[in-house]
Amino acid sequence: HPKALEFHNLGVEARDRLFLAANRIGKTMACSLEVCMHATGNYPDWWQGHRYNKPVNVWVGGITEKEINILERRYFDGDVGELPWVHPSLVLYRNQTKHSYHILHKSGSMSIITFKTYQQGRLTWQGEKLDLCHLDGAGVSCRLDGIPGVIGCSVFWRLYPSRLDNEIGWA
């Protein structure tokens, strides 16, 4: 999808990105696939977005436990007619109780993906050094499924300075 491609390509310059679009058009998939690419270090030939040459520490947020379970299944087990987004051979460790996964990065080291819900509260969302954070649904105020005309969103943060930040002195 052209908007998803534009979103990915902006990752080279923009540290924070918001994918704001109609419900059910692929925001979650686009952001989740980018998380998987960064966690593994494996990028398709067409990829023009930011690339990590080191393992990453990632949080993926969802509104409810049910939503997180669906995302975890799509990442690691696949869905109906769909392969998992992370190949099973790259999953070094999985703790489904803590929603934490260790993924083999192309560098030979290990990335960590941890899934969290907004229901867990603010205190569980602080104090960790992260490389990336994907907030699916971006909280209750942004996504009101089932109401015609309301838009949903996915927020993607790269938590270190970008090239543009360095150029303009914000880093």
Keywords:
171 residues, 26% strand, globular
Provide a descriptive summary of the structure in words.
With 171 residues, this protein is α/β, with parallel strands linked by helices. 23% of the residues lie in helices and 26% in strands. It contains 4 helices and 7 strands; from the N terminus they run H-E-H-E-H-E-E-E-E-E-H. It has helices at 2-9, 27-40, 65-76, 163-168; strands spanning 16-22, 57-62, 91-95, 100-104, 110-117, 132-136, 151-158. A 7-stranded mixed β-sheet has the order 1-7-6-2-5-4-3, with helices on one face. Mean pLDDT is 80; it is low at 139-152 and 161-171.
Write down the overall mean pLDDT: 80
Low-confidence stretches: 139-152, 161-171
Strand segment count: 7
Give the proportion of residues in helices. Answer: 10-25%
From the helix content, strand content and strand pairing, which structural class follows?
Answer: alpha/beta
Strand order of the largest sheet: 1-7-6-2-5-4-3
Largest sheet: 7 strands, mixed
Q: State the order of secondary-structure elements, H for helix, E for strand.
A: HEHEHEEEEEH
Head-to-tail CA distance between termini: 32 Å
Question: What's the number of helices?
Answer: 4
Radius of gyration: 16 Å
Strand content: 25-35%
General form: globular
Produce the secondary structure layout.
Elements: H1 2-9, E1 16-22, H2 27-40, E2 57-62, H3 65-76, E3 91-95, E4 100-104, E5 110-117, E6 132-136, E7 151-158, H4 163-168
